[in-house]
Request: fold
Amino acid sequence: MRIIHRLDEMTETARGWAAVGTVGFVPTMGFLHEGHMSLVEAARRECEISAASIFVNPLQFATGAEFAAYPRDTVRDLQLLDSAGVDVVFLPDKEEMFPANFSAYVIPSGPVAERLEAAAAPQYMRGVATVLVKLFQLVRPDIAYFGQKDAQQVALVRQIVRDLNMDIRVHVLPTLRERDGLALSNHNRVLSPVERQTAPAIYQALLAGKTLIDKGEMRAARIEQAMRRHLAHAPEINVDYIDICHPATFRPLKRAAPGTLLVIAARIGSARLVDNIVWTEDDNWVL
Ligand code: AMP
Reply:
């Protein structure tokens, strides 16, 4: 496994890949868990060359303190990636990625860049969009892998790739969950034992929404109400938002139909958890 820090070395390496075969790329912020590793394994399986990046993106945090508090364990991450058989790990320097004179931000617009996660943190979408465009330019992947867990990021990436004519396929893998349904996330580690016990209620609320749809209730307001009622049983959970929207555009929907995302963001103690399920256009559920 080759570890690359410098941007010019990454560019040079990616240039050499063009003749070798397809390149699969998994961008991450590190502190890897099985959810991240499922993306890495897909890249390994489906591509001749696999690359992962570890970069805690300073642009997407509201404050320097939040950026500093993000968990890091590069030694362990590199062990995991090495055992998974990744070809290249890109670990760029913050100063080289975003020098003091950096100014060419990518500023997306529309519901996907303005609602829900974006409304909670205005810098977030611009930060994600900018860093991903830079990483794509440096690594030049044929396929980029993302987790459905971050549904709004998935919609944003698809939008960027389409709007900027990037020659990249986006592969999205289902959310990996604990046995009790809680989505794997770096935020779970700050949950107290009691909070950890309560946390699966978020996924159960999403499933309560699905149950209602399965019974034929298509009115979004009713479905949202059912999900909210479910979470009301857990007083430790403070809901940021519950939303029913289109998974690609993030436009709110009045009625559910194939092509509907149910999404919840909630705070439990000091953790902020986000989860979703999707009723796909081809009438399947991604749970
Ligand atoms: P992050 O390091 O949090 O930016 O995540 C890197 C990638 O891993 C993103 O595409 C996430 O959507 C994905 N990811 C995070 N958690 C999970 C999970 N529980 N299951 C599947 N993918 C995940």
About this structure: Strands lie at 2-4, 23-28, 49-54, 88-90, 143-147, 169-173, 237-245, 260-268, 271-279, 285-286.
